[in-house]
Amino acid sequence: MLYNLDFLEEGRAWPPPSEAERLERYALNRAVFEGEHAEVYREQFRRIERVVGNFEEVVSYPLVVNFQKLMCIKFADLLLGEAPTISAAGAEDVLAKLAAHSNLAGKAYEVAIDVSRYGTGLFLLYRDEDGLGVVDITQPSCWFPVVSPDNIKNVTHHVLAVSYTDGDREYLKAHVHERGKVSTRVYELGGGEIGELVSEEESLTGFEGFAVLPVHNVLTSDRFFGIDDFTDIDSIVAEIEVRLAQISRILDKHSAPTMTGPGSALSDDGNGGLTLKTGNYIVNDAFMDGSSGDVRYITWDAQLDANFKQLEVLVNFLYMLSETGATLLDNNLSGGRAESGTALRLRMMSPLAKVNRIRVNFDPALKAAVSEVLRVGWGQELEPSQVNIIWEDGLPDDPRESAQIMNIRTAGKPTISQRQAIKRLDGVDDALADEIIKEIAAGKALRKGDVYGRAVGTE
To answer: What is the number of alpha carbons within 13 Å of residue 333 lying toward its C-beta?
Structure first.
């Protein structure tokens, strides 16, 4: 952890040594998310050398099971796949404009992915060229929070720093955020050390609090940074990829099996050699005396059943440790049958509980971001407590089940008008819904009129 701004002084190593482990984990998790598993899991794969000497020739890794990427996306879908409804008394129109101006739903979705893969995602607030407040995001790898020595939960500064080159020289730009203001510093950088301060400029942000708002995954009392979702399952995913690669190698090796049999099955090829016109062939020493025998394929019990059984066990552990479960990943447990909403939610208890944990930290950060930005250029003075967010669960609704519940709770009385029902089910506007109702009424009048009467002989 960083407890003061001394790490930005001339002669200090960059990046700060105390942050090296965290930054390395971010880099590894990013590589895993991008599918670069052969590089990240290289050491795990090397353990096979204890059994297979010519490891590189016998075992290859053509298969990438990017479970981590899928897991991030699925949890982000559950949290923000159905955009939450953000409201505040008297500010609905402004909130809608802010959400569109900042692409708030899209930015929040990206933060949710970072929360899963890095353990922490970051909202960044700033004022654009038109003077309007914007809710944006930034990456945790350029974030260096400074905390109080006696309480690591108390942040004194948020530093966003990146290195860049200009011509043949390297520089470090650091944005040092305090409450309500930011100091932009540019340093020379060389040999992994901070050089002379080139420039410094301080400005007011217009926000009452910090312009950097972190959203954490699981936290404990002695942790400041959230725990990512990748670390606990890395070894299992690596093992699954190794097993799949070995199985593929075995199947490839035996797609054209070798044959064995008596020497009498071979014929002279005309060039002083012997040939058998089918596949590979090995002369069985038991028939070298010229005796007869059957020509057969050499088979090898590769214990593939055991491999597949181990894969099944690994996948189950993966579901358990990642809190995803088979249902979230579209494993068809219902045999193709449509499940009720209640049954689906019962199967989704574990992933929904995980999303609720993330939501506990996401909710106050998003409220704070919205209330802070509304003050800058939008003309709305709101406290975070005045912003209301209605979160959705990301699961599909079951209209039949909802209708049954309404029917029970209202003792069979109608809970929706014909007009509203047509609008919702057919996706039409008010005018078209009214036209449909008129057509329905006209049809009823026709059935009760002269034509109907003549047809049944009532006239």
So the answer is: 11
Q: What are 46-55's contacts with CB under 8 Å, separation 24+?
A: 48/242
Give the residue among 385, 387, 456, 372 at the shortest CA–CA distance from 123: 372
Give the helix/strand (H/E) hosting 58: helix 55-58
Tell me the whole-structure pTM to 2 decimals: 0.76
Each residue of 257-297: pLDDT tens digit? 666 666 655 666 667 666 655 544 455 555 455 555 555 55
Compute the distance between CA of residue 216 and CA of residue 221 in angstroms, rounded to an integer: 13
- Best CA proximity match to 30, nearest among 139, 113, 117, 142: 117
Give the tokens for residue 152: 């690591």
CA–CA separation, 322 vs 229, rounded Å? 7
How far apart CA 211 and CA 372 sit, in angstroms, is: 9
Q: What is the pLDDT of residues 341-371, one digit of tens each?
A: 566 666 677 888 888 899 999 999 999 999 9
Which DSSP string do the residues of 20-51 spell out, in sequence order?
Answer: HHHHHHHHHHHHHHTT-HHHHTHHHHHGGGGT
* Among candidate residues 312, 336, 316, the one with its CA nearest the CA of residue 326: 316
Provide the β-strand partners of residue 260. 282, 296
**In angstroms, rounded to a whole number, what is the distance separating the alpha carbons of residues 172 and 181?**
20
- From residue 130, alpha-carbon distances to 46, 204, 270 in Å are 56, 16, 89
Output the DSSP codes for 194-261: EEEEEEEEEEE-S-SS-SEEEEESB--TT-SSPBPSSGGGHHHHHHHHHHHHHHHHHHHHTSS-EEEE
Which residue type does 397 have?
A: D
Tell me the per-residue pLDDT of 201-239, one tens digit each, with 9 for 90 and over: 999 998 999 999 999 999 998 899 999 999 988 888 888
